Amino acid sequence: IRYAEGKGWYDARVEARGPIPMDPATAVLHYAQEIFEGLKAYQAVDGGITMFRPDANAARFADSAQRMAMAPLPEQVFLDSLHHLIDIDRAWIPSGEGGSLYLRPFMFGSEVFLGVRPANEYLYVVIASPVESYFSSGVKPLTVWASPTYTRAAPGGTGAAKCGGNYASSLIAKAQAAENDCDDVIFLDAVERRYVDEMSGMNIFFVYDDGTLATPTLGTILPGITRESVLTLAREAGHQVVERQVGFDEWRADAASGRLREVFACGTAAVITPIGTVRHPGGEFAIAGGEPGSVTMGLRQTLVDIQRGRTEDTHGWVHRIA
Ligand code: PMP
């Protein structure tokens, strides 16, 4: 779907995937006005097709567009575009556990001009592709690298927006994590370099021995839809959950004393996955011997069961495709 200032959204179409021809002076290639979302359509156990909280993705997309000074795409247009593609691709959605149709809506400044100002033309596109389970060999606790060098977002920056530039700046930190034999990176806050922010594509939760949970406060982190769902489910399961700044030194000390029982990461791709080991330039430490914990695995099961239609959805999160 195209947008032009004064004309609005027009020219919606579905085509076979192929190249998008671009002028070398297309705005996005120079000043990076680009935002995206990632979500999945599932085959439910009853044979229907569902999406999990697509309205939350639509709202976050609108917030990202606002932050990046881009044209607002009406939330209903976002939702209709997904419905339309799912309907066309319904025969291709894998039915196996973990399989889904991955949907990647994105939008970029398509106006041809060189200049630092918001573009007056945009292209909104959705890619749909069948994917198998994120975990080919079951859930395995992650080893994460606490980056001493790089941050993901500063106050006033674009951390809360899902824009491509944030991921471009994370790539080098992810590469460092891989060099240190880690699965992902832990970003610390940009101001004091003391507090845990999030990972390259997931939010983070801490589970303590008294049953309470903590997760970093919103602001510079991406407001994850899984994070928000976990907040709700954990509270319903009787846990006290606080959103607060969690210090890296505090994390290490609580892991050593045993007060910290579990740590997990959460996001659309992996749902909920345990963190077993934390590596940093000064050494490493494990959480509860590096094994998956019962709170982590319990919340994971609850969420996956809601997504797959095995458990009643009491929150109106599961969106059925007719
Ligand atoms: N943080 C970052 C940086 C991410 O890219 C993602 C994935 N969208 C998340 C957190 C988790 O968000 P969600 O639960 O909405 O997938």
UniProtKB/TrEMBL annotation:
Superkingdom assignment: Bacteria
Catalytic reactions of this protein: L-leucine + 2-oxoglutarate = 4-methyl-2-oxopentanoate + L-glutamate; L-isoleucine + 2-oxoglutarate = (S)-3-methyl-2-oxopentanoate + L-glutamate; L-valine + 2-oxoglutarate = 3-methyl-2-oxobutanoate + L-glutamate
Gene3D superfamilies: 3.30.470.10, D-amino Acid Aminotransferase, subunit A, domain 2
PROSITE patterns xrefs: AA_TRANSFER_CLASS_4
Cofactors demanded by this protein: pyridoxal 5'-phosphate
The protein's enzyme class: transferase
Keywords linked to the UniProt accession: Amino-acid biosynthesis, Aminotransferase, Branched-chain amino acid biosynthesis, Pyridoxal phosphate, Transferase
Pathway recorded for this protein: Amino-acid biosynthesis; L-leucine biosynthesis; L-leucine from 3-methyl-2-oxobutanoate: step 4/4; Amino-acid biosynthesis; L-isoleucine biosynthesis; L-isoleucine from 2-oxobutanoate: step 4/4; Amino-acid biosynthesis; L-valine biosynthesis; L-valine from pyruvate: step 4/4
EC number(s) recorded for this UniProt protein: 2.6.1.42
Claim: Amino-acid biosynthesis is one of the keywords in the record: yes
Molecular function terms, GO-annotated: branched-chain-amino-acid transaminase activity
PANTHER family assigned: BRANCHED-CHAIN-AMINO-ACID AMINOTRANSFERASE, SUBGROUP IIII AMINOTRANSFERASE
Family from the record: Belongs to the class-IV pyridoxal-phosphate-dependent aminotransferase family.
Name the record gives this protein: Branched-chain-amino-acid aminotransferase
Organism lineage string: Bacteria, Bacillati, Actinomycetota, Actinomycetes, Micromonosporales
